[in-house]
Specification:
Elements: H1 2-17, H2 21-39, H3 44-48, H4 51-61, H5 68-98, H6 106-114, H7 136-154, H8 158-179, H9 186-191, H10 193-205, H11 213-228, H12 244-265, H13 273-285, H14 287-298, H15 303-306, H16 312-330, H17 334-340
Length: 357
């Protein structure tokens, strides 16, 4: 067993040296924030100020230019297929549940087909379409990535690209807020292009490596202001940015601060840091799948209540455990590993950390 652990340590360190694992850890924190934000009424404004912007910023940071055809092909498999599978699975489970607890099952079918993420849109048209919930993000990220790629075709100049991204974001948010809620999370994806651009610009300018104490204080001030001054919270899914410049800067600032905090924390001589690191890295790697399992459990009628989990804390722990178990079991199948690009969790070698093959 010790030899296995040693081999694993060598392999995982080599893996970490090939990528910035701080990004995975940040995404791991982000997916925990998503679950807590959906299940707890406390701190929602604070959580919503960064949890969705964070994912778009990190995605933009990892952007690699390719052809539009290649991008669509790759992202269809990575984002659209999980969306379709999750939506249909929830609908089928809802059909089964309706045999015990009679209710309207068309909600999930319509929600999945439309791709509406929220039931609180303010647009004049289609604001009340049944909503699918958290996996709207998969559609929005698909739209966001292809849109940014198209914008970059017109200009790779950082300033011009930023102005184009800003323009698209503002127009999309105004259309969704005032006029029409379009299907397939098109407008949320377009409005989030500004966050995606921010991640791209951060990488181009090397900003993660240039944050000092004074710039960190400024970023904290922006994040605090973005939480304090608007009456309502940011909602990317509804394209709702209470004070647009401040709200957007708040989400970007939060992501930079979380990344820098993780980067510095990992330098401290803390016992069991490797074990904790490995867990959060894995959470970040499978964050999209956790989001899918989160929605499945969140909408299985009465499951938590039937098992006696009724308090907020119990619901969060149960949902999170459900997500972890679901992804771990899914990782045991080669087809799933290939389809979702995840590593297998070896549940028989969990001795000194989170073992992934």
């Amino acid at each position: 067993m010790d030899n296995n652990i040693s081999e694993y340590s060598t392999r995982i360190n080599s893996y970490y040296n090939r990528r910035d694992i701080n990004l995975d850890i940040v995404k791991g924190i982000g997916i925990i924030a998503v679950i807590v934000g959906h299940l707890s009424p406390y701190g929602v404004k604070f959580i919503f100020s960064f949890h969705m912007p964070l994912f778009f910023v990190i995605a933009g940071f990892l952007y690699k230019q390719t052809s539009l055809k290649q991008s669509i092909h790759k992202d269809f498999k990575r984002l659209i297929i999980p969306y379709i599978i999750t939506g249909l699975l929830i609908y089928l489970l809802d059909l089964l549940a309706s045999a015990i607890w009679p209710h309207d099952t068309m909600h999930w079918l319509i929600g999945t087909l439309w791709g509406n993420g929220s039931g609180a849109h303010t647009s004049a048209l289609f604001a009340d379409i049944p909503y699918i919930g958290a996996i709207w993000f998969l559609l929005a990220l698909f739209v966001c990535k292809q849109t940014f790629l198209i914008l970059q075709i017109y200009s790779d100049n950082l300033i011009k690209l930023g102005l184009l991204s800003l323009t698209v974001s503002i127009i999309a948010s105004l259309i969704d807020t005032i006029y029409i809620n379009l299907p397939f999370a098109i407008l949320p994806g377009l409005s989030a292009v500004i966050f995606y651009y921010a991640g791209y610009a951060i990488r181009r300018m090397g900003m993660f490596d240039r944050i000092n104490l004074w710039s960190a204080i400024i970023l904290v001030a922006i994040w605090v202001a973005a939480n304090y001054f608007p009456e309502h919270h940011l909602s990317v899914v509804r394209c709702y940015y209470p004070i647009y410049p401040l709200t957007v800067l708040g989400g970007i600032s939060a992501t930079i601060l979380i990344y820098c905090a993780i980067s510095n924390l990992r330098k401290l001589p803390i016992n069991h840091m490797d074990w904790i690191r490995n867990i959060f890295v894995w959470l970040g790697e499978v964050s999209l799948l956790i989001m899918c399992f989160h929605l499945i459990e969140l909408n299985l009628p009465y499951l938590g209540s039937l098992l006696g989990f009724n308090t907020i804390f119990e619901r969060i722990i149960f949902n999170f455990t459900f997500c972890i178990i679901g992804v771990v079991l899914l990782s045991q199948f080669p087809l799933a590993r290939n389809l979702f690009k995840i590593r297998q969790v070896n549940i028989f070698k969990l001795k000194k950390g989170f073992i992934c093959n």
